[in-house]
Write a structure and sequence with these properties.
This protein is mostly helical. The chain has 18 helices and four strands. The strands form two sheets. A two-stranded antiparallel sheet has the order 1-2. A hairpin with a 2-residue loop joins strand 3 and strand 4 (488-491).
């Protein structure tokens, strides 16, 4: 597929390493105000408050701080409101009213607004196109915040990537997870501080407070710089390309917190004749440092920190150690498919729902006790009672497509063939993750999910419904439909036609319970009882 060339000047300061995403969700433009709606009383009401305020009540124009384009202000630390969800904006005004958010100007004004005015203003700003007036301090490099924003820091800290809740490129998801892309730097730093001190509340289950407490000041500043530098609108195009696998990200040759994009084209399936023409450089390529060219050694002593010890699980190679040769490109493709399985241009044809491998195997299949792929690689071939035969790892992957991905309902109606590009890429990725792991160890610490003992009350769907509504629905939806931004999945559907079928491991109550106990909610900011 031929790609469009984008000049670096077209994105200026925004052209940073924003393409290394796991879940990619495009911003869905709300319809502009036009026609009859342009003269409706509510629109006129909102425009008057935005541009003129209300002198009689002492309310200044919204545009004085948030600017006429809704892009916010670094000078006063005012947030970008343009293109944020109307429900989210209305909820924040309510939080100012209730005291969950404190601000010497916004709090008293919020109490003066009527319900009609709150609704009108929220809809007005939500309908604006994405705009940003953010500026990153010159002493900060936005790329330094990319690692936490895109991958998090799971090992020992249980710190999820920001994009796992706020969506790819910080576009935002639903009414609880606002857009971060293009938010002013001073606003983001200030809000992280407010979450950490308790000055800001109102987050579901205290999730943001828990995250803020785990961040150092330097980390908060770097993450804020990363998101402030993102283009509020142009990033959407890149997100869509990554979601479809048009561009395959690679962190090869880098170490935390540095970040490098080494774009590569996805290889053709062996069964498809013809070859792809070379891709033109993407819009971020001119400002990316050059990746190292040294290939990863597949032999020799185990690297420090990767051998199994009494204190920690096996450590897969860092993303920064990924090879930069042809094999490394296949590994990068495998991770891309692993994270975007249902939407990827190569694997999507075999997926009949909205699931991704990473939905069950967290942190790209790296996280211990979340069914890590480094433990699965050396455990096959193995006998499986499900199909009463000895399965190879390839057959196991095909089984995941049949059950977890519901391949029967896919475009082609069956799982990928053993010699397909999908299976080749995934097995290459799994092999690379498992380098130096013991072969044949089916009891490897960290494999699978830690089993739960039977509780006195047993499995109870009625009690489960209450727990789900309280802690899970905020992400996965009231009816288990998943969390979406437009048509793109961010939080996986848990039941229904877009979820896994009866043969998936997660369909088993004991397996799902073990996964939830150890790994949910993301980051374990609260612990559910057995």
């Amino acid at each position: 597929m031929q790609h469009q060339d984008r000049s670096a000047s077209a994105v200026s300061r925004f052209a940073i390493a924003a393409s290394l995403l796991v879940y990619v969700v495009p911003w869905v433009a709300m319809p502009g105000v036009s026609g009859a709606a342009a003269t409706s009383p509510d629109v006129n009401l909102a425009e008057a408050l935005v541009t003129q305020g209300d002198a009689q009540r002492g309310i200044e124009p919204c545009a004085k701080c948030h600017q006429a384009d809704g892009g916010g202000s670094e000078e006063v630390g005012a947030p970008r409101l343009a293109a944020l969800g109307a429900d989210y904006l209305a909820n924040q005004i309510q939080n100012f009213r209730d005291g969950n958010r404190k601000h010497p100007i916004m709090a008293p004004w919020a109490k003066l607004l009527s319900e009609q005015e709150i609704t009108a203003l929220s809809a007005y700003f939500a309908a604006l196109p994405p705009a940003s007036n953010a500026q990153v301090p010159k002493h900060l490099n936005p790329k330094d915040g990319a690692w936490l924003a895109l991958y998090g820091n799971w090992d020992g800290r249980w710190l999820p990537a920001c994009q796992q809740c706020h969506g790819p490129l910080g576009i935002g998801v639903g009414e609880h997870f606002p857009a971060l892309a293009g938010q002013p730097y001073n606003y983001l730093v200030g809000q992280l501080a407010a979450w950490g001190t308790g000055e800001r509340r109102g987050d579901h289950d205290g999730m943001m407070a828990a995250v803020a407490h785990r961040l150092t000041l330097a980390e908060a500043q770097h993450v804020a710089a990363f998101y402030a530098a993102l283009p509020a609108a142009q990033a959407v195009e890149t997100a869509r390309e990554l979601d479809a696998g048009t561009w395959v990200p690679s962190a090869a040759g880098l170490k935390q917190p540095a970040f490098v994009i080494a774009p590569s084209t996805a290889p053709q399936s062996p069964t498809t004749p013809g070859a792809q023409p070379p891709a033109k450089p993407h819009w971020w390529s001119s400002i990316m440092p050059k990746a190292h060219k040294d290939a990863l050694s597949h032999q020799g002593p185990v690297a420090p920190g990767r051998a199994l010890t009494d204190e920690r699980h096996f450590q897969p190679p860092s993303r920064s150690a990924r090879p930069t040769d042809e094999f490394g490109e296949m590994v990068a493709l495998g991770e891309s498919i692993f994270s975007h399985t249902y939407s990827h241009q190569i694997s999507g044809q075999y997926v009949g729902n909205d699931q991704v491998c990473e939905g069950c195997h967290l942190d790209g299949g790296r996280l211990a006790d979340a069914a890590p792929m480094w433990a699965a690689w050396g455990a096959y071939p193995a006998y499986r009672a499900k199909n009463n035969k000895v399965n190879t790892l390839t057959e196991r992957i095909q089984g995941c497509f049949a059950y977890s991905m519901n391949a029967q309902a896919s475009k082609v109606g069956h799982p990928p063939a053993a010699d397909s590009a999908t299976v080749l890429a995934l097995t290459s990725y799994l092999y690379w993750l498992a380098q130096d792991a013991p072969t044949g160890d089916r009891q490897m610490p960290g494999r699978g999910y830690p089993a739960l003992a039977q509780t006195e009350q047993g499995f109870d769907p009625d009690r489960g419904e209450v727990v789900y509504a309280k802690h899970c629905a905020v992400c996965h939806g009231d009816q288990g439909e998943g969390g979406y931004a437009g048509a793109e999945m961010v939080f996986p559907p848990l039941w229904g036609e877009r979820s896994y079928n009866w043969g998936a491991g997660m369909h088993r109550i004991d397996t799902a319970a073990a996964f939830i106990k150890t790994n949910m909610p993301l980051g374990n900011y609260l612990e559910l009882t057995d």
